[in-house]
Amino acid sequence: xxxxxxxxxxxxxxxxxxxxxxYDITTALEGKALNKEALQAEVGLxxxxxxxxxxxxxxxxxxxxxxxxxxAIPEILKEEDVQIVLLGTGKKKFxxxxxxxxxxxxxxxxxxxxxxxxxxxxxxxxxxVLAV
Length: 132
Known about the structure:
Pfam family, one: Glyco_trans_1_4
CATH topology: Rossmann fold
Largest sheet: 4 strands, parallel
CATH class: Alpha Beta
Protein name: Granule-bound starch synthase I
Order of helices and strands: HEHEHEHE
CATH architecture: 3-Layer(aba) Sandwich
Oligomer: single chain
Organism: Thinopyrum intermedium
């Protein structure tokens, strides 16, 4: 990997082998929408282009702020019609907390607590917002 970066060839949406639909600058709007629908279907969320989809991909360790994110999710969902997909592994307490958030909001939140490179690519291509 590239420290604090990404391989722009591997993650190029015009040829990324993990995407449901490849796209370029001229087809980005429709390509992103189709990848969003594919992502929603893959993780079992209601498929709806109109609902904003937020994605988080990362390690579940204190320095990455999962505790802040876990506390914020219920508050966000009270105020906004949004879907959230989280992908990562790390401290078991954070993994358990994310799964409990998913259980509390089954039509809004998916917590995938395992390593899944293809899903990470699909999340980057299909999300409306990336939480970092």
